[in-house]
Write a structure and sequence with these properties.
Elements: E1 3-7, E2 11-15, E3 29-33, H1 35-45, E4 49-53, E5 55-57, H2 60-70, E6 80-82, E7 88-92, E8 101-105, H3 121-124, E9 130-134, H4 136-140, H5 142-158, E10 161-165, H6 179-187, E11 192-195, H7 197-204, H8 219-232, E12 238-246, E13 252-260, E14 263-266, E15 270-272, H9 281-295, H10 299-313, H11 325-332
Parallel strand pairs: 1-4, 1-9, 2-7, 5-6, 9-10, 10-11, 11-12
Antiparallel strand pairs: 2-3, 7-8, 12-13, 13-14, 13-15
């Protein structure tokens, strides 16, 4: 069984019921989530040995957060408990032309206070096959960014593959450092880079012909964007770009492209016409890709598995993608009928 280690912030998620506006009624649904934690949960449910590393508050909120990961089979034995608070994010789910909205309350969190030297990475990564981190962690604080870079460097030294999901979050990059400065250092340590076109443009400062942040570009522009990214970061073996066509809050086209040893390819496209929860969609893609690259010899098969896993996530409330390998493989093989399994 392959062992994957992920590193980032685990947060309390407070969501308004259904499609209500925040505080429209005096209720909020409380669950937990966070980019790298979502990846760890997905990989555990797919049958991998998933370990998650973070700093978390030493209180009842932190206890509950850890229980949410243990319940899905994630190893949390290397989590540091500290006096700082657990970060929170508030979510309002949009509908039709009203977009979803996220409000962060994570300043001064235990994860934001993480710094180099806090974790014994040589011990944590011993025997690990893969290490995963996102661009969200470096956006929290300068010290968290340095901690993420330290971890990725230790993973390369330990012989583990390193994946970085750029996950650009403009609401978080506010401590005086531009995202490309930190994310460029992290990308230099990566074997696999995962992003959408806006992440690459704003997170790494790489433009594609005909591309505009937040706008659509054609397949040739994606191909050029991936090629330029690999040219600038020659240690990369794979660049995967998710392609989301946002027609409304409930209706998206969903596919992805991959540039790897077998060349450039684009996946099947799914029409997501009744989205339940798109938060965690990119994380489920990242987990599916990691699983596919470890499990299959064929990059095309790995890409199709990742896109199918993420398509299924859009049907599940919460951050976690609560699906099995068999369910993902069934959809990836073309069975998307939704017929009752009896």
């Amino acid at each position: 069984m392959k062992r994957i280690v992920s590193f980032g912030e685990l947060m309390l998620r407070l969501k308004s019921p259904g499609h209500e506006r925040l505080f429209q009624s005096p209720l909020l649904e409380a669950t937990f989530g966070g980019g790298e934690a979502n990846v760890a949960v997905s990989l555990a449910l797919l049958g991998m040995e998933a370990s998650y590393v973070t700093a978390l508050s030493s209180d009842a909120v932190g206890d509950a957060a850890l229980r949410s990961l243990r319940a899905q089979g994630v190893d949390v034995s290397r989590v540091r408990r500290t006096k700082e608070r657990t970060g929170i994010y508030f979510l309002e789910t949009g509908a039709d032309q009203r977009a979803s909205n996220v409000v962060y309350d994570r300043a001064g969190s235990a994860a934001a206070a993480m710094k180099p030297g806090d974790f014994d990475w040589a011990s944590i990564l011993a025997g690990a096959d893969w290490f995963h981190v996102t661009g969200i962690t470096p956006a929290l604080s300068r010290s968290a960014a340095e901690a993420a870079i330290e971890a990725a460097a230790a993973a390369r030294k330990a012989g583990a593959k390193v994946s970085v999901d750029l996950n650009y979050r403009k609401k978080l990059w506010n401590y005086g450092v531009a995202a490309p400065e930190m994310m460029g250092r992290l990308a230099e340590l990566a074997d696999v880079l995962i992003a959408n076109e806006e992440d690459i443009q704003l997170g790494l400062g790489i433009e594609a012909p005909g591309a505009k942040a937040g706008g659509g570009i054609d397949a040739e522009s994606y191909k050029a964007l991936a090629a330029e990214t690999r040219r600038r970061y020659p240690k990369l073996s794979v660049v995967a770009i998710t392609l989301r066509e946002s027609k409304s809050a409930d209706r998206n086209g969903w596919s992805a492209a991959l540039d790897g040893k077998g060349g450039f390819r684009v996946s099947r496209k799914y029409e997501l016409c009744d989205i339940v929860d798109r938060v965690g969609g990119g994380d489920s893609f990242a987990a599916g890709l990691i699983f596919g690259l470890l499990e299959y010899a064929d990059e095309a098969k790995a890409l199709e598995f990742a896109v199918a896993a993420s398509a299924l996530k859009h049907t599940i409330p919460g951050d976690f993608n609560l699906v099995s390998r068999a369910e993902v493989e069934r959809l990836a093989s073309g069975d998307g009928s939704g017929r009752v399994s009896r």
